[in-house]
Structures are given as C-alpha cells and as structure tokens.
Specification:
The chain is mainly α and 110 residues long. It is 86% helix and 0% strand.
Length: 110
C-alpha cells in the first residue's frame, strides 16, 4: 500500500511538473516574442534616424544607395532578432531549469 501511494505521489509530481513546464514555456515564448519585436523596432527606428541625419553627399556613394540602406536595415534587425531569441531564450530556460531542480531537490530531501 505504501509503495502504491509512493507511485501515485511521483506520478502526480510528474504531471504537475509537465503542466508547469507547459505554462512556463507558453509564458516565456510570448514574453520573448513581445520583447524581440520591441527591440527590433527600436533598432530600426534608431538606425533610420541615424541615416536621416547624414549629409546629402553621403547618399551619393554607391554603398549608401536606397536599396542597400533598406536591405541593411532589414538584415541587421533580423540578425538582432535571431540573436536575441537564441541567447535570451536559452538563458531563460536554463535559469528556470536550475531553479526548479533546486526546489525539487529541497523538497525530496525533507
């Protein structure tokens, strides 16, 4: 009877951890998506403001043509978006995993 009760306890614990993981992933993905969009928008706006502050002769150079500048704006913002997603997402998941592991270790040791 005690063995069966222990099995039920650990099964319930795994279900609770699965539900918590589902909720945390949902929250994390939505939060990071929102933050990424804000960062990319800010970078694009700042880059565009810097471009607009240039002197007229700056636009005459071939490397500063309209098509190259617009391409540069979109590519750089996309690169920032990818870097933000990968680095911050992994840091978030790793931190949560460590914290949950510590909590589980303390609970199991008592």
């Amino acid at each position: 009877d005690d063995v069966l009760r222990g099995v039920y306890f650990y099964a319930l614990l795994f279900v609770i951890m699965g539900v918590a993981q589902l909720l945390l992933n949902f929250f994390g993905i939505n939060t990071f998506g929102f933050c990424e969009e804000r960062v990319v928008e800010t970078v694009r706006q700042k880059s565009f403001q810097v471009i607009l502050k240039q002197r007229l002769g700056w636009f005459d150079k071939t490397e500063n043509s309209v098509s190259k500048l617009s391409h540069r704006l979109s590519v750089e913002a996309s690169n920032i978006d990818q870097a933000f997603d990968i680095n911050v997402g992994h840091a978030y998941r790793s931190t949560i995993a460590v914290l949950v592991s510590i909590v589980i270790a303390f609970i199991m040791s008592w």
